[in-house]
Design brief:
heterodimer; A: alpha/beta; 4-stranded antiparallel beta sheet; 7 helices; 29% strand; B: alpha+beta; 2 domains; two-stranded antiparallel sheet; 13 helices; 12 strands; 54% helix
Amino acid sequence: MNTDTILEVQDLKKTYQLGSVPVHALRGVTFQVNAGDFVSILGPSGSGKSTLLNMIGALDRPSEGDLSIRGTGISTLNDNELADLRQRVGFVFQFFNLISRLDAVGNVELPLTIAGVPSKERRARAEKMLGKVGLGDRMHHKPSQLSGGERQRVAVARALVTDPSFLLMDEPTGNLDSVTASEIMDLVDRVNQEFGMTIIVVTHDPAVSNRARRKIRLVDGHIESDEVNHN
Amino acid sequence: MKSRDTLGYSFSAIRLRKLRSGLTTLGIVIGIAAIVALLSFTQGFQVTMTTQFQEGFATDTLVVSAGGMFDRFSGEEPSDFALYVNDTAAVMEIDGVDLATPIISGMGSLDSEDSHLDLSVSGVNYTEYSTLYGTTFVAEQGEIPAVPANDSVVIGSSVYDPWGNGTIFADIGDELVLTITIRDNGATHENNITVTVVGILGEIGGTSFGGGPSDSGVYITLGTAVDLFESEEVSSVVVQLVSDDEATIDQVTLDIEALFDNEASVLSSTSVLEMMDTMLGTIELLLAGIAGISLLVAGIGIMNIMIVSLMERTREIGILKALGAKGRTVLGIFLSEALLIGLIGGVIGIVAGSLLANVFSGIFGGFAGGMGGVGAGAGSQLTSMFTTITPVLTPELMFWAIFYGVVVSVVFGLYPAYRASKLDPVDALRKE
């Protein structure tokens, strides 16, 4: 394993039981992500993207093989250890997944609150992060008072505030118009280049995957191609 | 997640659904208010009873009677045993007894020129009785004669003024006809005597447990009572002890019981108070049980609402878990919501309950007051007793009220909270 390896996926398999029929969502996937990478994972629906995303996000365990985040393999972890590991993953969802009753700063604070960070410190960190994503003047707005793009910025700030090992994005522009989507991807680019943050983005949108420096294409539960993006 | 943050997060969830949280809390409020109102009222009642009882029954006196004042409720066969005037002498012989005086009492009626009252008539030795009840058997008008004539009568304040409006039934020097109905083997006849009012007692208030004077009492001499009732049988012998220490009370009680072959009942104020406490304790328990049922219903309401809330917030739980929340954090959040509902409900319930208890005592006071005007004696006593009931809200009662509110909420919140904590994050996030 390279010392710079953030994520190592080794012959990952996941089989679901749909009634009495076994469904092979992942049939042996192997790849590594190094620090500072910007990787997109593409594939049509049913290719195993979501299953892979859940395991990279430490939400689920593999049936076979292993996936390690900074050297910690997830297959043998119990629920509590998995939860702890998730605090090191910055998750950004397609539907923003903000808590509607909390304001922007409250939402960004939430992962720090869960991690038990003292209130003054987390407030300061959340405010700083919101400033970095360009929402310094919208901190006390509720999600319902924010536009789609602003909501996704809050989600990015929430994902980054814990200083995670990597940013894991699930169709981050799937719910945005093309202009806003482009703005969000500009932000992601900046996060990758300025902060050196590792980005893994799962998408079927070429406009998003073209931003990445590496494309991993999944088909029927295995990797069809894994190539450097020449765009 | 720190406990303070968990509580803060839960509180924001409660605040979001104000109406629903309010209605859920209302269940707890009603349960706790019912408990607090009923118990503080009963405790107030107990305090009033005890105080008034102690006023009329000193700790250094014993009351000896043929059948205990509570025996009539026991369902046992009434015995033929009776106490007579001359038994008093034997009681006086016992060590530790300072004074023993007999009381003959029964129902009778008094007629003035234009009014008629049915009431309780007591034959007492004026001198001894006023020694025993030095603070209550005191004439406010006239006097309590040391050597009374046979036709003397001393009346209580509510016989003097039975309607409470200044219309006097009988004044000092007035002649009244006292009638006693004697029942003898099925046949009845009446004995009359004309008596002259020599003394009117000051207002005593309270009740006349243990043979003490009462506002509705009519007191004639012992000799006259023997003639009127055609019997030397006494209803009780009141015994003054040399001291009110427990050893003396116990020893004299045993000696008197032995004197009458364990047929007589000997009551001390302490033993009666214990009995009253037990009775009121049972009533309290019953009332608390009834109120407890409403708390149980409230608990089921909480469980129901939390299960609905859990379904609605599945996605939120998924987000929390995706952000690194452990199962026990989610459990804590949901239990905190139940805890806060219990706590808020408990506090509001205590306030509502104490208001309710005051309303109770007002209604009871007013009700008894309305009853008390006519019919003299008994009514007036009731009035004075109920109007003085102040609900007692002890810190213990408040503590237990909140405690039960919280326990019920948390216990019923446990299952929904457990289910929330066990939700699979992948499934939870997929939920629309």
